[in-house]
């Protein structure tokens, strides 16, 4: 599975400095929780499935992520979490797969600070990066960034999730090739970076499984897949792109 490349940052609370993030690592383990290195504290020790270094609320939130049942077209794996954004972090990477091709990819990071964070208005924060390639004419649509942001908020609302302090960016990038690379067609990419504070439920634990499912709904929309629920007219997906990317 292709990992989403680039830096992740939390746009709330002054934590968006690039120096406070880490480059994405090669993925290890799988979504079923066989790799305990996915959950860790700020001291770099493994939190596993909620071991001695992980607070109970964080351990429960991570277990819910590992147990979530997702669309079969989306492959999700645990990956190394950034160490400097919060005392405790757990990261997942995902790809929307069609045969041997990846249509879109992304990364979702769960952050936890038991002391709370003033800008978060809570003790948990979700941070994401989602990417997909587009037809150049689609990327030129001036409404595309607004539509992509509405897909994120709409995916959360569609599952009845309450959240606060959302922030993020939608970026369009185009590549044009010249000289020895002139035979390559122009390429355009959409990238969504966002963070939000999930509402904490019983025991101070947010419904991370539902938030993961909503995030996968966003990935599916960006990839151009039809809605998971047939007949849902409120969901608008991207038209079919030029072609999937090789894995």
From TrEMBL:
Residues 1-55 are annotated as: Disordered. Residues 16-27 have a biased composition (Basic and acidic residues). It comes from Streptomyces coelicoflavus. Residues 39-51 have a biased composition (Gly residues). This is DUF3000 domain-containing protein. It comes from the Bacteria.
């Amino acid at each position: 599975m292709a990992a989403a490349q680039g830096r992740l940052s939390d746009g709330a609370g002054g934590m968006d400095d690039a120096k406070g993030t880490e480059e994405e690592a090669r993925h290890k383990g799988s979504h079923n929780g066989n790799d305990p290195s996915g959950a860790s504290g700020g001291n770099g020790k493994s939190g596993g499935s909620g071991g001695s270094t992980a607070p109970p609320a964080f351990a429960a939130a991570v277990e819910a992520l590992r147990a979530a049942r997702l669309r079969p077209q989306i492959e999700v794996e645990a990956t190394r979490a950034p160490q400097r954004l919060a005392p405790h972090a757990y990261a997942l990477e995902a790809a929307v797969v069609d045969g041997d091709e990846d249509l879109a990819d992304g990364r979702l990071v769960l952050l936890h600070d038991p002391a709370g964070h003033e800008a978060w208005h809570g003790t948990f924060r979700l941070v994401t990066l989602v990417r997909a390639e587009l037809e150049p004419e689609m990327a030129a649509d001036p409404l595309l960034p607004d539509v992509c942001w509405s897909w994120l908020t709409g995916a959360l609302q569609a599952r009845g999730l309450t959240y606060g302090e959302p922030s993020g960016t939608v970026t369009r990038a185009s590549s044009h090739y010249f000289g020895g690379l002139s035979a390559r067609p122009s390429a355009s990419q959409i990238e969504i970076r966002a963070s939000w504070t999930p509402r904490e439920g019983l025991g101070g634990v947010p419904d991370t499984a539902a938030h993961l499912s909503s995030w996968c709904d966003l990935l599916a929309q960006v990839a151009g897949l039809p809605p998971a629920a047939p007949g849902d007219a409120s969901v608008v997906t991207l038209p079919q792109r030029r072609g999937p990317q090789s894995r």
